[in-house]
Design a protein that fits this description.
56% of the residues lie in helices and 13% in strands. The protein contains nine helices and five strands, in the order E-H-E-H-H-H-E-H-H-E-H-H-E-H. Helix 4 packs parallel to helix 6, helix 5 crosses helix 8 and helix 7 packs across helix 8.
Length: 222
């Protein structure tokens, strides 16, 4: 089974995934957690590190605005890296994930397809990648989640929580507002099975998520 958790930074995805992982493992299931964000998969990160080797200032040391400006100054707006990232996702999501998420094995994805779509729209605003053949192949090939959650909070709360996490290069509040707009557009299209209001206590959120996951497990075993 593949379970997807989506949403803004600091919405509580990692906290809920950790709680759910412990619960499922206590039930005798094999659980694997994957931070599943396009452009940051192991293959692409290896390639990026190879290209960056020896440079004075790595991408991780740049602000979000610097990274986006650099991408969009390039003649093709970084389209080749985007193309490679999509190819990598076809392999990662379309071949590796199905092998891992077999019966009695649970794959918990911290971000997945729709988060990546939103990321790519923000990072590559001039690239019409959704019309590309490789994206259409990915849309068909990726392992569809058996259970999916989008965790929602306000941009202000996301920003407030990020101060406690000491993120080195946090997104601005304006960027978070724009990202939330993109999430809300996809929520209206019913991209996720469950919308979770995360402006509540951790326990209240967890009880809702746990109930949904166990319902799906019972249905899968029936």
């Amino acid at each position: 089974m593949l379970i997807e958790f989506s949403g803004l930074d600091c919405a509580g995805k990692s906290t809920q995934i950790d709680l759910l992982k412990k619960d499922l493992e206590n039930g005798g299931l094999v659980v694997k957690v994957v931070w599943s964000r396009g452009g940051y998969t192991p293959g692409i990160m290896w390639l990026k590190n190879l290209v960056r080797w020896g440079k004075e200032k790595s991408v991780e040391q740049q602000t979000d605005e610097e990274r986006l400006a650099k991408i969009n100054r390039k003649p093709k707006g970084g389209r080749f890296l985007l193309w490679l990232s999509i190819i990598d996702l076809i392999i990662y999501w379309g071949m590796i994930f199905p092998m891992w998420s077999r019966r009695e094995r649970i794959l918990l994805c911290d971000r997945y397809y729709w988060d990546t779509l939103i990321d790519f729209r923000i990072k590559y605003p001039n690239a019409q990648f959704e019309k590309w053949l490789v994206w259409k192949i990915l849309n068909v090939a990726y392992k569809k989640p058996d259970c999916s959650f989008v965790l929602t909070i306000t941009p202000q709360e996301s920003m407030r929580r990020s101060t406690f996490k000491f993120e080195p290069f946090p997104e601005s509040e304006e960027r978070r507002k724009y990202r939330l707009e993109l999430y809300m557009n996809e929520i209206k299209k019913c991209r996720w099975k469950t919308i979770v209001d995360c402006m509540r206590s951790i326990d209240s959120i967890y009880n809702e998520i746990r109930l949904k996951v166990h319902e799906n497990l019972r249905d899968a075993r029936a």
